[in-house]
Write a structure and sequence with these properties.
Order of helices and strands: HHHHHHHHHEHEHHEEHEHEE
Mean pLDDT: 85
Number of strands: 7
Shape: elongated
Number of domains: 2
Bound molecules: S-adenosylmethionine
Low-confidence stretches: 39-45, 110-115
Helix content: 40-55%
Distance between the termini: 18 Å
Structural class: alpha/beta
Strand order of the largest sheet: 3-2-1-4-5-7-6
Radius of gyration: 30 Å
Length: 337
């Protein structure tokens, strides 16, 4: 979470504590009023002698622990007139109304914009390229970003970042308090990416992206740990025809995430029975096989996104020349807490 969001949350917690403390004082004033009316503690000094008993009864109430001035109210009780107790109670009601108003203002004006992620604004950013907007037509980035849950300040690994279409969207979402590690193997850079990374890297929005040129089965330097999120979009199938130990890769991805962190995988669907045999020819992979491989590393399945599903796709043609939109699955996994 960003420093901005943390300070907003701290303000809300402080206000809630103040509100609870004022409420606690009112409970006490009510009780003192009750004792006064019932003449139980009218004799000066009686309450002080019973103070320990009184406070131990109250100390079990969490609200009262917050409010040390209560001790002085109890100790000074014999000097408080009934009128003073009532006045203090009225002041507290006003105080609580004011705090409630402040809470509303802080939540609305300070904290909410920090918590809510405006994915639509990210996708609509005027400095995105025309090429990326063309890719948007088959990727549905608004739904995809929403499904990832990427947030400002997160530390993210983007596997096989390639031309960095996804990396740039993630970089915009995490902002300057976050970081995106964009991974590619040297082989893929040489064969496919070429200068695409360097060209895109010149955009100001890419300044917090760290280019990581490493093999897929050892994708991060060992000191990069506790990631919030890993994205592996439309590239797991490529692992099936390169020299990649996929079981080791999945174990490394698992180790790199913090407990509770998420792995998001999207890929082009292959027919049942095709397994990993069509990775190179059709650029597809059988969903069930991929699921088994990922789950073997310890990831727990959380949800699937069905917004890029296309049952009309016969899944027997290479994705680049498919006559229909390509049937694609999106899976969300979590490293258990
Ligand atoms: C390896 S994949 C994924 C890379 C990266 N992880 C991402 O999310 O953008 C991207 C490659 O597929 C290529 N591609 C081109 N047309 C495509 C299509 N119709 N369907 C899928 N991929 C296509 C893109 O040009 C790009 O080189």
């Amino acid at each position: 979470m960003s420093a901005h969001a943390i300070s907003a949350q701290a303000k809300i917690i402080a206000l809630e504590k103040t509100s609870a403390a004022v409420r606690a004082e009112n409970f006490l004033l009510d009780d003192l009023g009750f004792y006064r009316e019932n003449s139980m503690f009218l004799k000066r000094g009686c309450l002080t002698r019973n103070r320990d008993k009184f406070m131990s009864a109250y100390s079990s109430k969490p609200d009262l622990k917050l409010y040390s001035p209560l001790i002085s109210i109890v100790e000074n009780y014999p000097r408080y007139s009934a009128g003073k107790l009532a006045r203090r109670r009225r002041e507290n009601i006003m105080k609580r109304a004011f705090i409630a108003l402040l809470l509303t203002v802080v939540a609305a004006a300070v904290s909410l914009p920090a918590f809510a992620q405006d994915y639509a604004a990210i996708v609509a950013a005027p400095d995105r390229s025309d090429a990326d907007r063309t890719t948007d037509k088959r990727r549905d980035p608004l739904k995809l970003l929403t499904f990832t849950g990427v947030r400002e300040g997160m530390r993210v690994l983007d596997m096989e970042a390639n031309a960095r279409y996804t990396t740039e969207l993630l970089a915009r979402a995490v902002g300057s308090n976050g970081v995106v590690y964009a991974q590619d193997s040297a082989e893929v850079i040489e064969r496919q990416v070429k200068d695409k990374f360097d060209i895109r890297a010149q955009k100001p929005v890419m300044k917090d992206v760290i280019h990581v040129i490493r093999n897929y089965d050892d994708p991060l330097p060992p000191d990069v740990r506790n990631l919030d999120l890993i994205t592996f979009f439309f590239a797991y199938h490529d692992m099936t025809y390169m020299q990649v130990d996929r079981a080791e890769m999945n174990r490394k991805l698992f180790a790199a995430l913090k407990p509770g962190g998420y792995l998001l995988i999207a890929d082009h669907s292959a027919r049942t029975g095709d397994g990993v045999s069509v990775g190179k020819t059709l650029h597809r992979i059988e969903e069930g096989v991929l699921r088994k491989e990922v789950e073997a590393a310890g990831f727990k399945f959380v949800a699937e996104g069905n917004f890029l599903r296309h049952p009309e796709d016969m899944r027997d043609v290479i994705v680049f020349r498919a006559p229909t939109p390509v049937d694609e699955f999106i899976l969300k996994y979590q490293k258990p807490q």
